[in-house]
Amino acid sequence: MTGSRRETMTMMNDTHSQLRQLSTQDFASFGLGDVAYVRPVEMDGTAAFAIHAADGTPLSVVADRELAFAAIVQNDMEPVSVH
User: Fold this and answer.
1) Is 16 buried (19+), middle (13-18) or exposed (0-12) by CB count in 10 A?
2) pTM more than 0.90
3) Same structural domain for residues 26 and 37?
């Protein structure tokens, strides 16, 4: 095994060990400030798109899917679509 491959394996093992030590609450908040999801909703009989934090907290509702993704990116988060 080469030195860089060995270092990569060591880093992966360290990360794996750290993740296994996360509490349930820590795991639930994992990515909370980094990821938001978009899902289609109906509001007052009109199609819309809801933006939610990773933990499901509603953040906003907008009329357009692209606008929802743009708002998430503008707030330095990664958008994810939920069907």
Assistant:
1) exposed
2) no
3) no
